[in-house]
Amino acid sequence: MNQKELVSAFKEIGIKAGDVLLIHSSLASIGEVEGGADTVIDALLKVLGAKGTLLAPVFGALGVIPDKLKARPGALVSPCPVGTLTGVGPAAAALFKDHWKADTVHGENTPFSRLAAKGGKILLLGCDQDRNTFLHGIEAQLELPYLRECTCSFEVNGKKITKTWPGYPGPHRDFIGIDRRMLESGIMTIGKVGSAQARLIDAKKLLEEGKKWGKEDPAFVLCDNPACPDCVEQRARIFAAEMGKEAFKLAMSSRLAGRYVPEMIENLHACGIRCIELDYVQGKPASMMPAEKLAAAVKEFSEAEIEVTALRLMAVPADPAKFCETLKKAKIKTVLLPGNASPDAVKAFRKAKITVAIYNCCQSGVELAARAAELKAGTVLDPAAFAAMGEMPFLRSYRNGRFIKHMVQLDVNDALFDGTAVRLAKGNGEIKELVSINRCRNFSGVLTLGAGVIYPATAREMAADFAKLLKEI
Questions:
Q1: How far apart are CA 372 and CA 356, in angstroms?
Q2: What DSSP state is assigned to residue 288?
Q3: I need a surface site. Which of 386, 438, 450, 459 has the fewest CB within 10 A?
Q4: Same-domain check for residues 74 and 142
Q5: Is 357 helix (H, G, I), strand (E, B) or coil?
Q6: What residues make up the domain containing 172?
Q7: CA-to-CA distance for 388 and 453, rounded, in angstroms?
Q8: What is the pLDDT of residues 36-57, one digit of tens each?
Q9: Among residues 201, 216, 231, which one ends one of the domains?
Q10: 166-175 burial: b if 16+ Cβ within 10 Å, else e
Q11: CA distance 427 to 429
């Protein structure tokens, strides 16, 4: 193609005189061009005219067109070491002003937000949405939980400055996944320049609609591929942020989390859960672990920024006082005991300053409440256990037992009346009702996923089940 043909093609796709245009490009995608990148730039500047401005990102190896634009006489460069743009035209100076002073690299008071305010456009020339840096501005303005910090040292007017910006984009995004949505909503049109597809996008509309999409679904630009570690981790950050807004503390049972400690840590991080209840480790009750190994496991969790909320005992130890030494060595402060624990055993734990709560073990809600009052202990409500004995966990156990007064933990599980464990809200455990009522009263205790039963799904599937249940409440 020659310059005249390019000018015609750019006008045909909708670029007009006076536009402020941010271009992401692949010269090779256009095909053979007489004069190469300079001819493409000349053609764009001719279409934009004296009142128009051409911008391009120059913060990495983004192709020959941005490099050639930056080298043009009169080209400006935004004064920020990251998210840097170059530009030619009368609007560049105002767009770039004090870029480094903005709170984020791509958000408010940056060239990206100013481009939208000026009614600017974005051109993806022979490349797809994965190259669309403007989308980082939407993420930054939404303050999405998976964004990170970026720290750089640079010079401004001869003075060395070190600055940290929050809201900086991380690894993989599925920007390609919103391409069709942009087209169908009228934000973008697709034309052709040479051999290249040319996507022309209204920056203001994209910002407005993108922020709506992100508020509805903070993971709107993340893929759902379970084999993509980047998006799995970023989705986990979103879930962890959402759980941080709840009054309760969310944990997962170690039996559900995995067989070995490293596997548990990996699954907890992938789920966005930062607390664990120790019930089983390597297929055996955690209480059977030697003191040194139990302490090492707790330390390993702590180093991975995972809190051990409690140790669940399947039976009361023969010598509770001696077992308390094991707990102290492991720095475990709470034990969950079966509801038939003796007053002497509870007294021994309490003397060692270990917090005690009891879970239902063949007791009705009323009986467990009475037992808790006798032992001066908190209660753990296990819906599956109540259902297995024929008692409706919410309509009868929770209400008749007045659990609102003494409950410190809700085991998040479900089961049929015959004891068969099922996925959440698929059985007789009335788990949806129990989570809802405790959410309404801002329950500040622990909700433990998979405690009490063997959940018939993986750790990550259960976390997804719980997230779905919360959205339905």
A1: 10
A2: G
A3: 438
A4: yes
A5: strand
A6: 3-216
A7: 11
A8: 999 999 999 999 999 999 999 9
A9: 216
A10: ebbbeebbbb
A11: 6
